Amino acid sequence: MASRKSTLYLFDVDGTLTKPRQVIKEELKNFLLNEVKSRVTVGLVSGSDYVKIAEQMDGEAVAEKFDYVFCENGVVQYRGGKLISSESILSYLGESLLQKVINFALGYMSKIELPAKRGNFVEFRSSMINICPVGRSCTQSERDEFVKFDSVHQIRQKFVDALQSEFKGTGLTFALGGQISVDVFPTGWDKTYCLKHVADQEFEVIHFFGDKTMPGGNDYELYNDSRTIGHKVTSPDDTREQVEQCLNIK
């Protein structure tokens, strides 16, 4: 029988609780914070920073109601809206290697022809570099157009393959991030990193719900980790259905 103290439910955000970069629906928000949280401990784990996660949860007042918010794959940890710990990719890897990655990425992207290109191609975060061929400044329609184009031409996967070849042996991991980008981070700084923060809580069971669970997806490692029970979801509605089944909520 699940209980608050013995069971943790971890949720990816994009594609799992919300449509990519969109705000969570009121019904799902209330379901998580009322029905689910009353039964088990709940946490979010995302590659995004706290500001973006809070926006998608419909504000910081909502985000802080989750027991845990693990940002940037868990390398940045919040509990009850308070920053508990964080690590720095710059301190860990050094400026020289980071610049080599950024310079290579910019050069590679300059040779790609896409339906549209906008701004903010490289976003530096505490725990990772987020590289976006279409540019994070793209509109929703331009994002959707890139997603369709990428599904056919495998732009991001080819980019990941090139990065892996160029930086083999450097201790860096390259993974598909969300719908439109590639995440670059130190090997081991994937979403399993968040499990370090809850080890002292001695949860009997940890469930993880995510949509990018295929090899190369940023949910893959946590979904397949021996410490979790992984659930592959296809949409926020599917997430709710699977949670209801797990908790026997009718």
TrEMBL record:
Transmembrane segments: none annotated. Pfam families: PMM. It catalyses: alpha-D-mannose 1-phosphate = D-mannose 6-phosphate. GO terms for cellular component: cytosol. Mg(2+) binds at D12, D14, D211, Y223, D225, T228. Pathway: Nucleotide-sugar biosynthesis; GDP-alpha-D-mannose biosynthesis; alpha-D-mannose 1-phosphate from D-fructose 6-phosphate: step 2/2. The active site is at D12, D14. Keywords: Cytoplasm, Isomerase, Magnesium, Metal-binding. GO terms for biological process: GDP-mannose biosynthetic process; mannose metabolic process; protein N-linked glycosylation. It is an enzyme of class 5 (isomerase). It is found in: Cytoplasm. Alpha-D-mannose 1-phosphate binds at R21, R125, R136, R143, S181, D183. Gene3D superfamilies: 3.30.1240.20, HAD superfamily/HAD-like. InterPro entries: HAD-like_sf (IPR036412), HAD-SF_hydro_IIB (IPR006379), HAD_sf (IPR023214), PMM (IPR005002), PMM_cap (IPR043169). Its EC number is 5.4.2.8. Its cofactor is Mg(2+). SUPFAM superfamilies: HAD-like (SSF56784). One of its GO terms (molecular function) is metal ion binding. Homodimer. Involved in the synthesis of the GDP-mannose and dolichol-phosphate-mannose required for a number of critical mannosyl transfer reactions. PANTHER family: PHOSPHOMANNOMUTASE. Belongs to the eukaryotic PMM family. This is Phosphomannomutase.
